[in-house]
Amino acid sequence: MAPTSDSGPRSSAEQGRSEHFREIILCHVELLYRVAARMTGNHAEAEDVVQDTLLRAHQAFDRFELREHGAAAWLMKIMHNHIQSLRRRAGHEPDVRADGNLDAFAADPHQGEAPLASEGPLDWDQLDDELKAAVSELEPEYRDVLLLWALGDLKYREIAAVLDVPLGTVESRLHRAREKLSRQLKEYAARRGLRTGGRT
Fold first, then answer.
1. How far, in Å, CA of 164 to CA of 159, rounded?
2. Which domains does the chain have, with CATH numbers?
3. How confident is the prediction along the chain (200 residues), in pLDDT tens digits per residue?
4. What's the CA gap between 169 and 88, in Å, rounded?
5. Contact between 167 and 174 (Cβ < 8 Å)
6. Are 48 and 35 in contact (CB under 8 A)?
7. Residue 190 to residues 30, 146, 155, 184, 186: CA-CA distances in angstroms?
């Protein structure tokens, strides 16, 4: 009797895994690129980051984390971790020492507000150059939270899971980002008729 080959079943299983990966992961590629481009400030680097993110996601797909938050949050976590590693190698690790002190934030009556609130993801292409430049010049720890919220359309709890920080830290960083962009945000909101409010 000829030996039984199990290569067929394995191939079928791998094919099914790849199809499942494409079905729930690849639909987020454009979003990943848009966020990566804003976080890195470099389109070529963003393309590399997204490719590395997809490769890592495919390798770790059997250990799909953050299932309660969905594929987008999981991919953002992988991508942000990779970007943070690149920043550390380049000597640009964010200084987040101030995030531990939330007293001033807790005393603010508008602490639940989020910047650039809208019904859907922020359309970066519609922002004026002044606001784009102001966002790009934010410190990475504030810019990342703002982009994950406004461009990535993630809820506060999802951002906390992506960054592996407490919910209060997410709220604090969003609040501080809004303060730093106060004038530009008010002018933008007035032009676009946007409301304020948070997705928690």
1. 8
2. 14-89 (1.10.1740.10), 109-192 (1.10.10.10)
3. 444 444 455 567 677 777 888 888 889 999 999 999 999 989 999 999 999 999 999 888 888 766 678 889 999 999 999 999 999 988 865 544 334 333 333 333 333 344 444 434 455 666 667 777 888 889 999 999 999 998 888 999 999 999 999 999 999 999 998 888 887 767 766 766 655 445 55
4. 21
5. no
6. no
7. 29, 19, 24, 10, 6
The values of phi and psi at residue 118, to 5°, are -155, 175
Residue 186: both structure tokens together = 């008010």
Tokens for 132?
Answer: 């784009």
**Which amino acid, one-letter code, is at 84?**
Q
What CA–CA distances, in Å, run from 171 to 81, 144, 145, 168? 20, 13, 9, 5
CA separation for the pair 131, 87 (Å, rounded) = 24
